[in-house]
Amino acid sequence: MHFVAFSTLTAAVAPTGDRLALLAIKSMIKVDPQGVMTSWNHSVTNFCQWQGVTCGRLFTLRELRLDNNSFTGNIPATIMNCSKLEALHLGRNNLVGKIPDGIGLLSMLSFLILYVNILEGIQDKKKNAQEKKNLSQHMKTSLQL
């Protein structure tokens, strides 16, 4: 009975913006040959239990580790709703298209791993996040365009 109460509490306090952003990522993945996204569904309300997702305090998304899965698809702009995101690992997939504008402005983002994809366009908006976190160093080494 205590477990049920905790599960209900978890679902109630988990930020909906993070969950919706993750579901948008799932919808943009066209091919998932390893079945990584099978745990990402509407019936599991606590997204912290989904494969590749690490949460912090108050069930906020802290790290998304989806590298080396042979995904094809795009990175949705809704990733910008994950305001507490510290690390985004999407390297070694087959993602295409534009990197969402302003991704470097996520104030908590320290690691952006996007290498071995076919992506374009890192927008440099006033270098705010790059000066604060030295994010440009991570981008240069992780993108390998």
Automatic annotation (TrEMBL):
Domain of life: Eukaryota
Alphabetized SUPFAM superfamilies for the sequence: L domain-like
The UniProt record lists the keyword Repeat: yes
Key words of the record: Leucine-rich repeat, Membrane, Repeat, Transmembrane, Transmembrane helix
Alphabetical list of Gene3D superfamilies matching this protein: Ribonuclease Inhibitor
Tagged with keyword tRNA-binding: no
Record's subcellular location: Cell envelope
Domain Leucine-rich repeat-containing N-terminal plant-type: 17-55
Pfam families (UniProt xref): LRR_8 (PF13855), LRRNT_2 (PF08263)
Entry's transmembrane regions: 102-122
Main location (coarse class): other
Signal peptide: none
Family note: Belongs to the polygalacturonase-inhibiting protein family.
Listed name of the protein: Leucine-rich repeat-containing N-terminal plant-type domain-containing protein
